[in-house]
Amino acid sequence: MAATRRITTVTLDWGDTLAANHGMPYLVTQRRAFERLAQDLATLGCAVVPAAFAEQAMADLSGDWRRSIDPQQNPEHKEFDFAAMLSGWVAAAGGMDCDQHRVRQAVTRCTARLTDTVIPYGDSGPALSMLKARGYRIGILSHTPWPGDACREWFHRHGLAGYIDFYSLSCEVGWIKPHPRHFQHALDQAGETPDRVLHVGDHPLRDIEGARAHGMRTCLRVTENIYSQDALDRCGPDAEILQLRELLDVLDRMA
Known about the structure:
Elements: E1 9-12, E2 19-20, H1 27-43, H2 50-69, H3 82-92, H4 100-115, E3 119-120, H5 124-133, E4 137-142, H6 148-157, E5 166-169, H7 170-173, H8 180-190, E6 197-201, H9 204-213, E7 217-221, H10 229-235, E8 239-241, H11 247-254
Helix pairs in contact: 1-2, 1-4, 2-3, 4-6, 9-10
């Protein structure tokens, strides 16, 4: 039997692993973000009605989001292009005829409001700091339709970006975990073989079963009242944690 190789890289899911995200979609927050975007566009001279703009954006986003996470409607686990959708809304409102620098500022304010519905757990920073101090490379391997720049900016705003070596985001990959292309993208970013990477996540199928099928080691971030106990029991991770600070003990046991 071949010896287990040392873990060099830790990839982490974002929502409900590093930050609280259960409850998506946040409809009130989304509506206010889209209304504010429309108001900003109107200030720039666009002929747009904020309430109507927001309702159309909400309907478009809700439809694509629900289709993307439904295995029956999206068996290939393809990610939808929210960045293109957002650009389409702006263009339809006449934003292409306005000052593009100010349009980009308005869009950035919108996506910042959307991403700030995700609140980092108190132990995320200390846990990432400890992993970095021990020499592990750290990657974010996340299912998120928000534009990649907006996601990275979230990590900057919350003081976590300095710990992250690479990002593998479904919005940029075009595929959603558990699709193997998403995991392979992360491995390509890491420059490592699967057996030297530990993936940490909360989703029994997307994170644990998906990573294991791709040859990675797995650690379940146990959450309350999100997934069925049967799904959690069935996914069979290599390790489980309740708190992120437990990761170092997990890695020591895998050494």
